[in-house]
Structure formats: structure tokens, C-alpha cells
Amino acid sequence: MSVFRINKTKNYTVMSNYHLQDRNLSYKAKGLLSYMLSLPSDWDYSIK
């Protein structure tokens, strides 16, 4: 089986599966964390 890798530079996020496989996190928390990791590094997070 071949593996095809594509270099994407826009609208693409690479993240570890570690937090997705953590059974202590809810699906809601996993989704929120994934969304937060997809935002730019200079994004300002707030409770509002």
C-alpha cells in the first residue's frame, strides 16, 4: 500500500492524535480544543 503525502499551506491543520484519543475528554472538549488549535498562534482567547 502506498502513502501519498500532500503539502498543504492554506486552510489546513496538522495536529497530534493524542488529545483525540484521550478518554478523559468529552467529544465537546475535543472539538473545542481542535478548533482552538486550528486558529492562528496570535489569536486572542477570552471567556466571552
Structural class label: mainly alpha
In angstroms, what separates the terminal alpha carbons?
48 Å
Major sheet:
none
Tally of separate helices = 1
Give the tally of β-strands.
Answer: 0
- Strand residue percentage: under 5%
Taking all Cα atoms into account, the compactness measure Rg is 14 Å
What is the helix/strand order? H
Instruction: Give the overall average pLDDT.
Output: 85
| Low-pLDDT segments, ≥5 res | none
What percent of residues adopt helix (DSSP H or I)? 25-40%
From the spread of the alpha carbons, the general shape counts as flat
Please tag this protein with its features.
48 residues, mainly alpha, 1 helix, flat
Describe this structure in words.
With 48 residues, the chain is an all-alpha fold. The protein contains 1 helix and no strands. The protein has one helix at residues 27-38. The protein is flat, with a radius of gyration of 14 Å. The N and C termini lie far apart (48 Å).
Question: Gist?
Answer:
The chain has 48 residues and is mainly α. The chain has one helix spanning 27-38. The longest helix is centred in the last third of the chain and has 12 residues, at 27-38.
